[in-house]
Design goal:
single chain; about 425 residues; alpha/beta; UDP-n-acetylglucosamine1-carboxyvinyl-transferase, Chain; 2 domains; four-stranded mixed sheet; about 30% helix; elongated; binds uridine-diphosphate-N-acetylglucosamine; cytoplasm; MurA_subfamily; RNA3'P_cycl/enolpyr_Trfase_a/b; Enolpyruvate_Tfrase_sf
Length: about 425
């Protein structure tokens, strides 16, 4: 297993190119199963989660081919209605193939996502959305089994919470439904608007994606399509923290300020400068860092996927920060590891009290999940001495060439092949 070795204390400077959004790529790859015509996706990030999702659709019978321009997926016929526990266990997003398989085949069986590394991650909202559209769904011995007696029927779906994944499931299934579907309390994440843009290019008729209310006119006439994904706002936010924590200056090329409004607001409150450039966003810090009080929320609130990174930054602020996680109930696996680097953090329920300003010291730490592990890298960039981060495969799931990008702007970081 690869490790990363980081020697802290280098001020980052230069430009980082932000890749396509992983969380756009995954539902779009799943959506390719809806249509019998080819879908070309450009701007897919080169990360292992994307490869895993391509393998999943490949296993369902889709033909995946790559060219210099992008990746084309053609699901002329689907071979199977099953996805195995082995594939779903590794990546919760695999549940996104449930709706396309059901819509296309009239039945689908997907293993329940296993593990609960960042809290219980139920699928009840996905199930209710499909039931509202007329599907019969039952969970039997760890498998979600969905079937249709007649086809899907357009309906009003009121989501109990604005789940990103359940909104994607509802949106994809509704493209096959007879008549109109209305999704209320839909998630508003930019990646959902991007999924709708991709589906629209494929022939779907969708209005209101990116808002609380989405309307879909079903029975899509599918056609060949090409779609370019939006940039990864979480990768951009992560490099923004890298610039801020090292007191450096980075230009995040391709990043979109409008997708990062709440994160930028928090960074500015902490004393970080942010401004737009012709190519993206520039982040810099020269003064002291101020503490912060924040709660994670669904979009457009502060993203849970940046909570661990901002906590690393808060360990360097002068004073105490309060960080509350309100999206996932136990997403604090980075806390004990940050404490091993010298951070002073107390956890109480869903809140973390971060007493900033103490010194961080390099040591050996363990990556536990994607965003938790990147917070350790960020802390290591300012820790005194050498940090070894084990289990780097967690980072490779969602960050394209993290070590190379950081090295290019001055970090002392190397990958130790294991
Ligand atoms: C997506 C993102 C993930 C991000 C999360 C929240 C992808 C591939 N992943 O995950 O990076 O951290 O949004 O921004 O896009 N819930 C239920 N029942 C359900 C579904 C969800 O109760 O059926 C709950 C979850 O337990 C959680 C909350 O809703 O507390 C938000 O989850 P959701 O928005 O669905 O996250 P994901 O789509 O899994």
């Amino acid at each position: 297993m690869d490790k990363l070795r980081i020697v802290g204390g280098k001020r980052l400077q230069g430009a980082v190119s932000i890749a396509g959004a992983k969380n756009s790529a995954l539902p779009q790859i799943a959506a390719s199963l809806l249509s019998p015509f080819p879908l070309e996706l450009t701007n897919l990030p080169v990360v292992t989660d994307v490869q895993a999702m391509l393998n999943v659709v490949g296993a369902q019978g889709a033909v995946v081919s790559r060219s210099a321009q992008g990746t084309t997926i053609e699901a002329r016929a689907l071979l199977t209605v099953d996805t195995t526990y082995e594939t779903v266990r590794k990546m919760r997003a695999t549940v996104l193939v449930l709706a396309p398989l059901l819509a296309r085949n009239g039945q689908a069986r997907v293993s329940m996502p296993g593990g609960c590394a960042i809290g219980a991650r139920p699928v009840d909202l996905h199930v209710k959305a499909l039931q509202a559209l007329g599907a019969h769904v039952e969970i039997d011995r760890g498998v979600i089994a969905a079937s249709l007696k007649s086809g899907l029927r357009g309906a009003r779906i009121v989501l109990g919470a604005p789940s990103v994944g359940a909104t994607a499931t509802a949106l994809m299934a509704a493209t096959y439904a007879k008549g109109e579907t209305e999704i209320l309390n839909a998630a508003r994440e930019p990646e959902l608007a991007d999924l709708a843009a991709c589906l629209t290019a494929m022939g779907a008729e969708i209005e209101g994606a990116g808002t609380h209310r989405i309307l879909i006119n079903g029975e899509t006439s599918w056609r060949a399509a090409s779609h370019h994904s939006i940039p990864d706002r979480i990768e951009a936010g992560t490099y923004a923290v890298a610039a801020a924590i090292t007191g450096g200056q980075l230009e995040l090329t391709n990043a979109r300020l409008e997708h990062l409004a709440s994160a930028v607001q928090i960074l500015e409150m902490m004393g970080v400068n942010v401004w737009p450039s012709d190519r993206g966003i520039v982040i810099s810090r020269d003064g002291a860092l101020r503490p912060v009080d924040l709660t994670t929320e669904p979009y457009p609130g502060f993203p849970t996927d940046l909570q661990a990174q901002i906590m690393a930054l808060a360990t360097c602020a002068n004073g105490a920060s309060l960080i509350r996680e309100a999206v996932f109930e136990s997403r604090f696996m980075h806390v004990p590891e940050l404490c091993r680097l010298g951070a002073d953090i107390t956890l109480k329920g869903t809140s973390a009290l971060v007493r900033g300003g103490g010194k961080l010291y390099g040591t050996e730490v363990m990556a536990t999940d994607l965003r938790a592990s990147v917070s350790l890298i960020l802390a290591a960039l300012v820790a005194e001495g050498e940090t070894i981060v084990n289990r780097v495969y967690h980072l490779d799931r969602g960050y394209e060439q993290l070590d190379r990008k950081l090295r290019q702007c001055g970090a002392d970081i190397e990958r130790l092949k294991g």
